[in-house]
């Protein structure tokens, strides 16, 4: 009675593995899309808004530095502090935009039942371009 276990268990395991691999491969075919980040940054009103906020922050910081009468050492310290503040604002805006883009990509991917979404810059060829849909979802 134990002899059947020697050949049935491995056969069933192999069959289950084969079925799982076939199901996985079937899920991926035709379900790959790409997003062009360069186009998204150029065409998205949200990205343009963040760029404008960053430019305004830069202008504000430089105007503050120019209006003050400082010694060279004080001016260098203030410039370094202003630069740090600028970088902090830049990183915050980039992270915020990144989260919003990821949420928009996820929304479009779920709606279109996509298995994989890649950045167009990393793909040589193939994949359905969903950039315009992501830009619309980002608003």
Instruction: Calculate the mean pLDDT score and round it.
Output: 81
State the helix count: 5
**Topology pattern, helix = H, strand = E:** HEHHHEEH
Global Rg: 26 Å
Q: How large is the share of residues in beta strands? A: 5-15%
List low-pLDDT spans: 4-9, 12-18
Distance, first to last CA: 67 Å
Tally of extended strands?
Answer: 3
Largest sheet: 3 strands, parallel
Structural class: mainly alpha
Shape: elongated
Order the strands across the largest sheet as they lie in space.
Answer: 2-1-3
Helical content band: over 70%
Q: Care to give the gist of this entry?
A:
With 139 residues, the protein is mainly alpha-helical. The chain has five helices and three strands, in the order H-E-H-H-H-E-E-H.
How would you characterize the overall build of this protein?
The chain has helices at residues 3-28, 37-43, 45-67, 72-112, 131-138, and strands at 32-35, 116-119, 128-129. The chain has 139 residues and is mostly helical. It has a three-stranded parallel β-sheet. Helix 3 (45-67) packs antiparallel against helix 4 and helix 4 packs across helix 5. The protein is elongated. The chain starts with a helix and ends with a helix. 12% of the residues are buried.
